[in-house]
Amino acid sequence: MKLHTRDQAPKEGQVEAPKPQQFLPTREGYLAFLAESKAVYDVLETTVSLSSHPEYLPLKNTGLERSAALDRDLAWFESEYGMKAPAPAEDGPGRTYARRVAELAETDPQAFVCHYYNFYFAHTAGGRMIGKKVSEMILDNKVLNFYQWDGDLQVSLDTVRQGINGLAETWTREQKDSCLQETSNSFKMSGLIMRCIMSPSA
């Protein structure tokens, strides 16, 4: 699958990575980022869990799931800093992305798989580096549950990647194109969520 940027997957990636910006995170912004991210993970994981669609079978119980980990981190923020997670706005980046994913789950399974792949795999790559940097800058080196996985992460990634690649081998050219064409949307929409990290302090 050629859904990553070259930075994320040097061998397979064919999409140019966005230009980096100066990174100045805030706790308020980071908390918003976690809450907005959870809105998307909730839809991805609920869809995969409840659907009987064959395209989603390789995505069930993979060990990559993040919603429960985010629940624990949001609770930790409130306990540690007295900061309650803001409810994502309906027109905010998390809810907007979640609606897009939910729509594709019903109308275009191949495009849904594209978003799943990018959202989860990017988090295990560049997302972990960002999490480490944020932890050093504003969380006293706290490692959030969001960046910890049960079992061997690489095994989980390889298993899911193989499952998706196996699916892709059964797709028509049109279905493959539909999946690939969503790549830019996935980067754009996840990028809007990422920007929350640098929201100004209240």
Would you mind describing this structure in some detail?
The longest helix is centred in the middle third of the chain and has 30 residues. By secondary structure, the protein is mainly α. Helix 1 runs parallel beside helix 3, helix 3 runs antiparallel to helix 4 and helix 4 packs parallel to helix 7.
Key structural traits:
60% helix; 0% strand; mainly alpha; 202 residues
Order of H and E elements? HHHHHHH
Q: Regions with pLDDT < 50 over 5+ consecutive residues? A: none
Secondary-structure-derived class:
mainly alpha
The largest β sheet comes out as:
none
Tally of strands: 0
Distance between the termini: 41 Å
Shape: globular
Query: What is the helical fraction, as a range of percent?
Result: 55-70%
On the 0 to 100 scale, the average pLDDT is 92
- Helix tally equals 7
Radius of gyration: 17 Å
Question: TL;DR?
Answer:
Helix content is 60%, strand content 0%. The protein has 7 helices and no strands.
What's the topology here?
Elements: H1 27-50, H2 67-81, H3 93-107, H4 109-138, H5 153-168, H6 173-181, H7 183-194
